[in-house]
């Protein structure tokens, strides 16, 4: 989801608070850990403005942008198959455990 949000903003940067607003249900801690990991992997560029408090901006690198296509295909697959997955989960809940 973070890749999608940053890809939609590309080539512009987004501040941390804006990324968090655009990713529903994510905690500040989880978003911070995710962005740090993505930066370490070279998927995200991080820029810090020396203000009080510091303004931190994120944008996808070329490597990060290259994920948008494969993730879009995966997202389409999930949306297409979600009814079947939900149905299988309901059936599993209804049948006795073996």
TrEMBL record:
Q: Which domain of life does this protein belong to?
A: Bacteria
Give the molecular function GO annotations.
DNA binding
The record, for Gene3D superfamilies, names: Winged helix-like DNA-binding domain superfamily/Winged helix DNA-binding domain
Does the keyword Magnesium belong to this entry? no
Which UniProt key words apply to this protein?
DNA-binding, Transcription, Transcription regulation
- Cited InterPro entries: HTH_HxlR, WH-like_DNA-bd_sf, WH_DNA-bd_sf
- Provide the HTH hxlR-type domain boundaries: 1-86
* Name listed for the protein in its UniProt record: Putative HTH-type transcriptional regulator YtcD
Origin species: Streptomyces hundungensis
Q: Quote the gene name from the UniProt entry.
A: ytcD_2
